[in-house]
Amino acid sequence: MSRYIPLVGACTALLALSACELGEKITQQTGYRGAGLAQVYDPDNYGTPEDLPPPPYALPPEGGPLATETYENVQVLTDMNTEQFNHLMAAITQWVSPDEGCAYCHNPADMADDSVYTKDVARRMLQMTRALNGEWASHTGETGVTCYTCHRGEPVPANVWAYTPQGNAMSIRGQRRGQNAPNPNVGYSSLPSDIFASYFEGDPSVVRVASSSAYPSAGHRISTMDAENSYAVMMHLSQALGVNCTYCHNSQSFQSWTQSSAQRNTAWYGIRMVRDTNEQYITPLAPIFPANRKGPLGDPLKVNCLTCHQGQAKPLGGQSMRQDYPYLHPPGVIPTELPTGENLISEILERPRQLTGESGAPNVP
C-alpha cells in the first residue's frame, strides 16, 4: 500500500494549491497564439462603482461670485465660484480626512489662517492634482485623478516610500554587500530595495539596461548591479499594476518598442510623472513636514506607482470621477503667481504654526 502514498500526497498538495486560487480569473490574449503574450486578471481586485465615495451633493452650476470674492486668502482655486469651491472642500474632507473634518487643515476660529501646516500641503497637492490631469494627461488620460485616487479616505496614502538606512553590511538581515533580505517591494527577491530613490526622484538612473548592439557602446555601459536595479523596479511596476511583464513588453524582445504594447508608452510617461510629482510637489515641502510625516532619514513620504494603482492596471479599476469634479481638470487654471519651490517654503516657514505639541510633533496624524 505504500506505493499509493505518494499519489495521495500529490492529490492533497494539488487540492491545497487549488484552494489558494479561489475566484474566477480572466485571461486575455494580447499577442500571437503560443507566444505567451497573455494577461491574467482577477476580477475581485477591480473596484466597482459602489467603491467610489459619492459626491457630497450635486455639482453646483457655473456662475455666481468667485470663491475669492466670498472667502479670504484663496490662493489656488481662484477660478472657481463659491458653490463649486464649497463642493470641492466637502469632497476633500471625504477623501482625505473624514474623521478629522475641516479642522485637519483649517483653524476653526479663523478659516483664512495659514498656521496649520496641512493647509499649505493641501494647496500644493491641489496644484499637483491639476498638473497631473493637465500636463501629465499622457499618463492620466481622460480618466484623470482626484485626491481620492491616492488617499482613499486616509490623511496619508497607504503606499508611500522614503529613503532607508543602508544598514550593517555584516548583519544577517538588512543590506549585505548591496543586497537585502527578501523584500515585497522587489518581488521578495534579495535585490536592492531602495530602488525608488534611483528612479523616482532626483537625477534618475536609466531603467533600460539592454544594449542596442551585441557589444557595449561607449555611451551605454551597464553593470550587473544596474541590471538588478532595473529588474527590481520592473518587479515594482508589475506588482503595483497587478500585471505580468507582457502587459507592456513583447517577450520576443523586451527592448523593442515597435513590438511592445501601447501600455509601455503610458508606463514611460508614468515613471516620469511620478518623478516629477516627488521632485516638484512633495520633496520641496520637507521643511514644513513634521517628523511623523517623514522617513527614518528625514525626507518626506513620497509616491510611487503603487500609491495610485494599488494592484490594479488602472487605478480604481479605471473608474473616473471627472464628471463629478470637472474643475480638477483642464481648463482649470494653475496659478503662476503662487510662490513655488524655495520661495514657497520660505514664505511658509515665516508663519507661526498651530497643532504642535511640546515635542514639536503635530497633534494630527
Topology diagram in text:
Layout: H1 5-19, E1 26-29, E2 38-41, H2 67-70, H3 82-96, H4 117-134, H5 137-140, H6 147-151, H7 196-199, H8 224-241, H9 262-282, H10 305-309, H11 341-349
Antiparallel strand pairs: 1-2
Helix pairs in contact: 4-9
Indicate the overall shape: globular
The CATH topology of the largest domain, please? Photosynthetic Reaction Center, subunit C, domain 2
The ordered H/E elements are HEEHHHHHHHHHH
The proportion of strand residues reads: under 5%
Tell me the total number of β-strands.
2
Number of domains: 2
The profile of the biggest β sheet is: 2 strands, antiparallel
The helicity comes to: 25-40%
- Uncertain regions spanning at least 5 consecutive residues: 1-21, 167-172, 332-342, 354-365
What is the CA-atom radius of gyration, in angstroms?
24 Å
Structural class: mainly alpha
What report would you give on this structure?
- This protein is mainly α.
- It folds into 2 domains: 43-156 and 320-365, Photosynthetic Reaction Center, subunit C, domain 2 (Orthogonal Bundle), CATH 1.10.468.10; 160-213 and 220-303, Photosynthetic Reaction Center, subunit C, domain 2, CATH 1.10.468.10.
- Helices cover 32% and strands 2% of the residues.
- It has 11 helices and 2 strands.
- The protein has helices spanning 5-19, 67-70, 82-96, 117-134, 137-140, 147-151, 196-199, 224-241, 262-282, 305-309, 341-349, and strands at residues 26-29, 38-41.
- A two-stranded antiparallel ribbon has the order 1-2.
- Helix 4 packs antiparallel against helix 9.
- The longest helix has 21 residues, at 262-282.
- The termini are far apart.
- 24% of the residues are buried.
